[in-house]
Amino acid sequence: MSMLTIIDFGKRFTIHHLGKTRQAVEQINFSLEKGEFIGIVGKSGSGKSTILKSIYRTYLPDTGGIFYDSDRFGRIDLCQASERQVLYLRKHEIGYVSQFLNVMPRTTSRQLVEQALLEMGESEAVARQEAEKALTHFELDPKLWDTYPNTFSGGEKLRLNIAMATVKKPRLLLLDEPTASLDQQSKLKVREIIEKLKANGTTLVGIFHDIEFMEGLCDKVYDMKERQLVHEVISNEG
């Protein structure tokens, strides 16, 4: 059984003040086996992020199905899953990394990463140890560990975001431009953790503007313009 299968997926958005509806994406089809990594490429506005947000159920698709092989629930259509099921999957099985950090105020970096592990049932001692390892790996200055991230630079916020998602070792990890504001050294750190997660069976769906970053990392590439899988990145579009 595939880990993730998307069948005839489509999503529309209504612009209420204009009284218009816009088709964001349609007729998306692909599947992934456990431990595979698919990269999605296409121009800005082609619907790449819409696919990721629909898998995570931030958006509710209008057509088609998104079937996920859950450790808890078995094969489940994420389009039909209950809110309680979605919350469980986000806590325990599906991770999401966006370009932006959206966290509880007055919570330190260390606490944010620890909380990601505590909500999975880890002990405080294990959570603290693993959080420090993750923050060290992504080279977040120890002076920042016990400060609030609202003062961080864009790159520091992004590294913290990635640490929070990857420390849980999710079964499925969604990456929305995770290297957008990172320097080359930080990108290598992200690549290293992705390779490690893949080796341990994590399935990944990612969007990258940095085409070079994807080379040798993705097992499959989905081209939004062609609406099909391609064997390799064939252009440097979005």
From TrEMBL:
- Domain of life, per UniProt, equals Bacteria
One GO location term (cellular component): ATP-binding cassette (ABC) transporter complex
What keywords tag this UniProt record? Answer: ATP-binding, Cell membrane, Lyase, Membrane, Nucleotide-binding, Translocase, Transport
Concerning SUPFAM superfamilies, the annotation shows:
P-loop containing nucleoside triphosphate hydrolases (SSF52540)
Localization recorded for this chain is: Cell membrane
> ABC transporter domain spans which residues?
4-237
Q: Which SMART domains match?
A: AAA
Task: Tell me how this protein sits in the membrane.
Answer: Peripheral membrane protein
GO MF, one term, reads:
ATP binding
Family the entry assigns? Belongs to the ABC transporter superfamily.
Entry protein name: Phosphonate C-P lyase system protein PhnL
| Protein encoded by which gene | phnL
